UniProtKB/TrEMBL annotation:
Coiled coil: none
Start and end residues of each Aldehyde dehydrogenase domain: 18-476
Catalytic residue positions: 246
Matches recorded under InterPro entries: Ald_DH/histidinol_DH, Ald_DH_C, Ald_DH_CS_CYS, Ald_DH_CS_GLU, Ald_DH_N, Aldehyde_DH_dom
Name this polypeptide is given: Aldehyde dehydrogenase family protein
GO molecular function: oxidoreductase activity, acting on the aldehyde or oxo group of donors, NAD or NADP as acceptor
Lineage: Bacteria, Pseudomonadati, Pseudomonadota, Betaproteobacteria, Burkholderiales
Keywords, comma-separated and alphabetical: Oxidoreductase
Pfam families xrefs: Aldedh
PROSITE patterns assigned: ALDEHYDE_DEHYDR_CYS, ALDEHYDE_DEHYDR_GLU
Length: 481
């Protein structure tokens, strides 16, 4: 059965279809998914525009009930949806079930948030006048999501958009349409009025520009690469649209001499290699002070030797495949780049041949540790998005902080230390949107703000109650008594 787009409450056949492949096993096709053309995109925007007047002024209780119902179904089906997600994206099944669970919780959180939207009442500077400040829905929003979190990232854009009374045109990554389609199907059956939520699967190269520049779209929320993010920002500025971007990271994990060694190794392994390193919050730079350096590298190599690379669906797999052949090739290309720059390969660095169910193999890369690297090397400046970590040796905390901040990115940063003084100083002075003390840089809560500084993010924060900043607009009303 082909999987179609959802436009104006109807399942609509694609202009063409694409194969969705399992990156653990290239003989396994998950399904044929519709790819929209510009005519279908126009139809989705028109349907959303038609639905907006009633949805934006309708019952808040109905909105809350609908979001709660969507969250409940996602949670009830977390194992099945997690299996689908692991099969199409390549993170391990437990990681995928965790992501689905997060998506369910996000819908339930925003079911509450739509009841908590508040304003302010102030006295006017003019006697006899009152001032009310309220938040209103913004209109039809375009949501563009990447392949690395195929249900959680859509959830944290769709749920607040709907909660605050907006209508949605959602374009998931072409590489992972199955999780997006499953989510859309749940949303469709939740009782949402036709046209409030529309799914347009398809290629960014075909419908990306038309979606972002469409006059019916008032705001765009995007997560993905820095290059596409910058393009969208320019287009939104030109067309006067609100824009929210989450892009790359080059997240530092500092390890100080006084760190608990076992804890520092575990959190570094988790944030560098779990989810195959395909997280914008992954630590790809391990910045280690000289007193603990040799012990840390030895313990990392020992722990890495226990990691099992394999089929995302197999029990006991720690690291699944890269999500695509292109991503695997990019990972291996960066190993060559680092070695060419003078780095030493301490572990991994190769394609792995893991035979899966059909006897075919997928896009596996061994977890890779590169030592003898310097802050200025490409391996320490460019986002790789694979299971690769580069180690930079530093003299002391002050140098570690300098190196941590020596990047164009600023999403997440971590420190492993038992020093309250250094932890406190790092929390205040590291240039990132999120900071972790004795915790992995990746893996965040769903009810608090998510986002970064510098080239990592642009526009208002996502998630938690801060999400209302992007998905509402402020009105100031003056009333004469
Ligand atoms: N910060 C993060 O969370 C992520 C970062 N990345 C980084 O980006 C690199 C490349 O990954 P990639 O998937 O190509 O990322 P992209 O930025 O190309 O894709 C992200 C989303 O944007 C869409 N898109 C592509 N071109 C346009 C356009 N012109 N206008 C509007 N939307 C568009 C994509 O569609 P389509 O899928 O059809 O191309 C996808 O839905 C990775 O190696 C990684 O470094 C990637 C994913 C997530
Ligand atoms: O680390 C996390 O929990 C979230 C990561 C993320 O959102 C991303 O990689 O795009």
């Amino acid at each position: 059965m082909p999987f179609n787009n959802l436009i104006g409450g109807e399942w609509v056949a694609g202009a063409r279809y694409g194969h969705n492949l399992n990156p653990s096993d290239t003989a396994d096709t998950i399904g044929e998914y519709a790819q929209a053309d510009v005519t279908q995109l126009d139809a989705a925007v028109s349907a959303a525009q038609a639905a907006f007047p009633r949805w934006s002024t309708g019952s808040v209780q109905a909105r809350s009930d609908t979001l709660d119902k969507i969250g409940s179904e996602i949670l009830a089906r977390r194992e099945e949806l997690g299996t689908l997600l692991a099969r199409e994206e390549g993170k391990t099944r437990p990681e995928a079930i965790g992501e689905v669970t997060r998506a369910g919780h996000i819908f339930k959180f925003f079911a509450g948030e739509c009841l908590r939207l508040s304003g302010e009442t102030l006295p006017s500077v003019r006697p006899g006048v009152g001032v009310d400040i309220t938040r209103e829905p913004i209109g039809v929003v375009g949501l563009i999501t990447p392949w690395n979190f195929p249900i959680a990232i859509p959830a944290w854009k769709i749920a607040p958009a709907l909660a605050f009374g907006n209508c949605v045109v959602f374009k998931p990554a072409d590489l992972v349409p199955a999780s997006a389609w499953a989510l859309a199907e749940i949303i469709h059956r939740s009782g949402l009025p036709a046209g409030v939520f529309n799914l347009v699967m398809g290629r960014g190269s075909v419908i990306g520009d038309p979606l972002v520049t469409h006059p019916g779209i008032v705001a765009v929320s995007f997560t993905g690469s820095t290059s596409v993010g910058h393009r969208i920002a320019m287009q939104c500025a030109e067309h006067g649209k609100k824009v929210q971007l989450e892009m790359g990271g080059k997240n530092p994990q500092v390890v100080l001499d006084d760190a608990d060694l076992a804890q520092a190794v575990e959190l570094s392994v988790q944030s560098a290699f779990f989810s195959t390193g395909q997280r914008c919050t992954a630590s790809s730079r391990l910045i280690v002070t000289e007193g603990i350096y040799d012990r840390f590298i030895a313990a990392m190599k020992e722990r890495m030797a226990t990691l099992r690379v394999g089929d995302a669906l197999a029990a006991g797999t720690d690291i699944g495949p890269a999500a695509s052949q292109a991503q695997m090739e990019q990972d291996l290309m960066y190993v060559d780049v680092a070695l060419g720059e003078g780095a030493t390969l301490a572990a991994g660095g190769t394609a792995a041949s893991c035979h899966t169910g059909s006897g075919n193999t997928g896009f596996f890369v061994t977890p890779t540790l590169l030592t003898d690297t310097a802050a200025g090397m490409r391996i320490n400046r460019e986002e790789v998005f694979g299971p690769l970590a580069a180690v930079i040796k530093v003299k002391d905390y002050e140098e570690a902080l300098d190196v941590a901040n020596n990047t164009e990115y600023g999403l997440s940063a971590g420190i492993a230390t038992t020093s309250l003084k250094h932890a406190t100083h790092f929390k205040r002075h590291v240039q990132s949107g999120m900071v972790m003390v004795n915790l992995p840089t990746a893996g965040v809560d769903y009810h608090v703000p998510f986002g970064g500084r510098k080239a990592s993010s642009y526009g208002p924060r996502e998630q938690g109650r801060y999400a209302q900043e992007f998905f509402t607009t402020v009105k100031t009303a003056y009333t004469a008594a």
